[in-house]
Known about the structure:
The chain is of the alpha+beta class. The chain has helices spanning 14-19, 23-27, 33-46, 73-91, 96-122, 142-148, 173-180, and strands at 6-11, 49-54, 153-156, 159-162, 168-170, 188-189, 196-198, 203-204, 207-208, 215-216.
Amino acid sequence: MNLGASIEFLTDSKLFFDQFSKVRDKAKDSINADQFLRFCQLIEDKNLQVRVRRMPSHLDIDPTKVRPDCVRDSDILGNDKADKLADLSAKSPLDFSLVLKYFKTVKLVRNIQSRLAVILCNLPNRPKQKKILVPKEALVPLSSLAATSKHVVLLEGSRYSCTVCKQFASGSREQIVSFLGSRCVPPVSTSGAGVDRIMIPISLGGKVSHPSHSIGC
């Protein structure tokens, strides 16, 4: 079959016609799932343009059925031939080894289901433990934390800063709460140039300085 070929598929199955556009979604729930998936994969691999038309069955022998305008004489003959081939295939003898394998598998599944049913019906009742719901603690407002903080807090938009130690935090509540609960140590003047050195780790926008850093203000 050529890549990108256009194919017109004629069927008298209303179910297949209605589900053709959803065939891949429906395939996994079908007893012919493997065949449907192979059908869809072939269309994708060959990049085929498939158009499906539907016609009523047995138009040649049932005068009560209305023949649609789109149905040609060749369509009726082809549908009749397909029906005869399907009947012939249904009457053909099957490979006994395949049939035996099928029935063995069905029997195995039934035995497993029966065994599981017996186990479930004879298991002792298990007491259900009632879950104890622990109420979540109410979050303390940031304004209350700022009022009790050791810092002299200045709020600018969503940025909390201290006018004394120059630390600040913004962004997530966790970072702000950590800043408000930290120590407030004023900078220490260590030189005659009037530059104050901060001697402890401080919070700067959610990040904490290292003790080895030389920070001035």
